[in-house]
Amino acid sequence: MQAPGDVQNLHVISRYNLTADKSVYYDLQVMFEPPANPGNFDSAEVWYKLKSKNGKAVTGQDWQYAGSSNSQVIIKALGPGEEYEVKAVAVDRFGNRSDTAQVVDVVVKAMDEVPDMPKNFTVSFKDHATASWNDVLNADVDYYELRTDNDPGKDTNALLAKVKGTSANLPLTKRSGTVYLYARSTLGKYSTPATYSYNLPQLEAPTFEVKDQLGGFSLYFGAKPPQAYVIRCHVIGDDRTDDLETTSSMLTYSNKAGVYRVRLNTLTCSVVV
Fold first, then answer.
1. Which of 193, 242, 200, 197 lies closest to 217, judged by CA?
2. Beta partners for residue 252, in sequence order
3. Torsion of CA 267, 269, 272, 273, to 10 degrees
4. Angle subtended at Cα 223 by Cα 222 and Cα 226, rounded to the nearest 5 degrees
C-alpha cells in the first residue's frame, strides 16, 4: 500500500503561559494541514530536537516525540532562546508512515510584557456588526478589549466587548464612529490600539404596494438599497402595533378588521438611531 504524502503548511509559533506566581512557561504550537491528496491520512506524528541554545550549537540530540494529531500539537515546557528542529510525519489509518517529513527550524521567543498592536482589524456590517482581527503572538494575551474611546480598562459605556478569541459582535448605537481594539496581557499591559472608523448612511425607506386579502393584507416592496439587509415594517392599529422584519420583496400581515397604518425603514445593521 502506498505511503501517505507529506503534510502541508507546517509552521510553528511560540506560546506563553503565565502562572499565579508570575512564572512563565514557554510552549511551541505546531500546526499543519493534511497532505494535498489526503486519501487515508489519519494524523501526523510531531518530533523535535534541540539544535542550539542562546546561539550556540548543540549536537548529539535525539528526536523527541511530542504527540500526534490531524492539525496541531503543543510542545511544552521549553526555554526562551532555544532553537529546535521540528518535523511532522504523516500516518494513514492503516499505520503506514510517509517516507519523508516536513521539517522546520524555530527559535522559542522570549515573551514581551506589552502586546503588539492587533493586525488586520476590520468591522463588517450585516445583520449585526462583527469585528475580527489577527491573534497577537508576542505576549501572553489575557483578552482583547473593544471600545468606542481610547481609555482601556475603564468599565464605562464605551466598553463594547472583552473576548478571548479574535472576533466579537459589537452593540454599536451610532451610525458613525471609531472602534478601538486593545490586546491586554496577563501582566496587565495594554497594546497600542488598532482602530476602525465607520460611517453608515441613513437609508431611504422602500416604496411599497398594499393588496387586500382575507383576514389581512400583503405588502409588496420596491427594491431596497444595496447596503440594506432587512426591511423593518411597523404596522400600527387601533389596539396594537406590530414590528415585523423581512429580507424578501413581500410580507403578509393578518389581524382583525380595522384601519392600519404602515411605516417602513431599512437597516444596514443593528445600528438604529
1. 242
2. 218
3. -90
4. 155
pLDDT tens figures, 128-183: 899 999 999 898 899 999 999 999 999 999 999 999 999 999 999 898 999 999 99
CA distances from 222 to 60, 126, 226, 269 (A): 76, 20, 12, 20
Q: Return the C-alpha torsion angle 73, 74, 79, 81, nearest 10.
A: 50
- Separation CA 137–CA 29 (nearest Å): 11
**Residue 121: how many CB atoms within 10 A of its CB?**
20
What is the CB-side half-sphere exposure of residue 124 using CA atoms within 13 A? 9
Instruction: Quote the cell numbers at residue 204.
Output: 431611504
Cα–chain center distance at 147: 17
Task: Give how far the C-alpha of residue 213 lies from the chain's centroid of Cα atoms, to the nearest Å.
Answer: 46
What cell numbers appear for 60 in the block? Answer: 548529539
249, exposed or middle or buried, with CB in 10 Å at 0-12, 13-18, 19+?
middle
Rounded to whole angstroms, the Cα distance separating 132 from 118 reads 10
Judge contact between 176 and 268, C-beta under 8 A. Answer: no
